[in-house]
Fold Orotidine-5'-phosphate decarboxylase.
Amino acid sequence: MKFNEKLSNRIQQQQSFLCIGLDPDKAILSDYGFRDDIFTYNKAIIDATHHYAAAYKPQFAHYAAIGQEEQLQQTIAYIKSEYPTIPVILDSKRGDIGSTASNYAIESYERYDVDAVTLNPYMGLETLAPYYDYQDRGCVVLVKTSNPGSKDFQDLLLASGEKLYQSIANAVLAKFDEAQSLFVVGATCLEELAQLRQAHPNTTFLVPGFGAQGGDLEGVILSGMTREGQGLLLNVSRGITLVNGIEDFASYLKQVKLNAKTWHDNMKHLREKYHGE
């Protein structure tokens, strides 16, 4: 089964686009006694939110920075064992060439055994090729990101008349299998999102940038959803798990679960509202 088929099945089952980021916060880990046991914390988060998740996305640096790659590995293995229909995307934004790229692909798909990984195409299409060799896995390519500095390079106008981000999207799909491909398109880039949807009517977009960055949920779904009610995976991390001022962990988990349900239900409502338009 291709990655996008697995993801599409999960979205259809959930009737929602919610991707939950597993980016453990140091202060929260310390507050509840999980400073050296991220896996147990993550397991509790997953068990509390799996009913609402179309996918999970752990961010690699949050684990590597404190030497907890093994607990990342445990977290991924737990999802795949207990909730095998939920895809896992490793957010590591790898981008290299040759044997280094091949080894990064091995790290992602064999060591961590994730369903998909985020990739930086700056060094060219050859940096993506080793990942596409894993034909049942997904390749999530940075195209138009939500950070303010994305305009420094991604909006550069080329001699062809395209902007750089448009050229990247076109080049990726000209060379590689769309059933394996996703594009990262920021929630703060509604005009670009609509343009990319028009140009690529069947491609799935992973959309970060909600919460602190101010992404417009309704605008994203209206601009980015396909006519089939698919084509989007909307990531929320801090908006679900960054909860302050709660003394005991059980109450914290209840709030995390409520946050996930709220995001899920809002996405489901908007999906139903605009499906087929």
